[in-house]
Amino acid sequence: MKDVVAMVEESYQLLGLGKIRMLPRINLDSEHTPGFLKLLPCTAHGLKEGGVYVYTAGKDQGVEKLVVLFDEQTGELKAIIEADRLSWLRTGAASAVATKYLAREDAHILGMIGSGRQAQSQLMAIRSVRNITLAKVYSPDPDHRLQYCRDMRESLGLEVVPVNEAREAIRDSDIVCTATTSRGPVFDGTWVRKGTHINSIGAHYPTRREVDESIVVKSKVVVDSRERALEEEGELLIPIQKGLVTKDHIYAELGDVVAGKMKGRTEKEEITWFTSGGLASECIVAAARIYEKAVSKGIGQTLDMKRDDFIPKALHSKSGR
Q1: 95 assigned to some structural domain
Q2: What range does the domain containing 22 cover?
Q3: Is the pTM of this model over 0.70?
Q4: Rounded distance, CA 303 to CA 308, Å?
């Protein structure tokens, strides 16, 4: 996880320095499935590879995730990477990067709302940037949150305890994370004490949100991408529609903070809030670095385009691979 956090931090630094070229998430419906195909393309100055992160939504098989990497100069196909684990890790890593720059240095108690797979990567990643001594976990399913706590205690050697109400998870927490599928706010913003940092990752639709408008109004708001957030984030769009804030309430993009163009936390008692929905740059920069590691270690399978008779001749490249 520390490796992926470093890769994602690099992606935000490149983004802040203007060295990333990417498109927002492209969503395509099929006849049977809304949002069936999602594409996130990206190139970056300084990388040898550029590519596309692509994933699908299906009713029977669920989600398939791939990164396809190409040589940035020649255009040759370099790698096809199964990206389910990469996507899972980099989602937690994005919150960890935000936590590194926005949470108090002495933050050590984490409140988690959600007990699914994404909540696992959140705790794994944030623990790598702050000395977390206690994690309190709430989700509506008592058995699910209990199993989550058992699994995370065993894997991290950390005190992870289930709580019976969302308020208990929020109370006295220095860092709060929401990783749910909820369509509405999962806690009351008045419960959040001064000096807290919040990461929310679960809602990426204009009509859905995990935090209420009171959090938005009183927080220093940092987003992964202004363009993405103002198109997808109900947490911002709903209070904007109500006239409670304007789009200028967004303090910064995380890339600007990582690149040193904007300061992160400037006051001990301010509330900071990071909302993310996933960027092409996170996936492609991480995938390119992982590809380099794999090549150096001799990991992976080579597809020989010239010698495999089943490969159409039009796909033969100069390198043959």
Answers
A1: no
A2: 2-86+281-315
A3: yes
A4: 8
Asked whether residue 120 falls in the same domain as residue 260, the answer is yes
11-38 tens-digit pLDDT: 999 999 999 999 988 989 888 888 789 9
Nearest to 152 by CA among 169, 173, 167, 135: 135
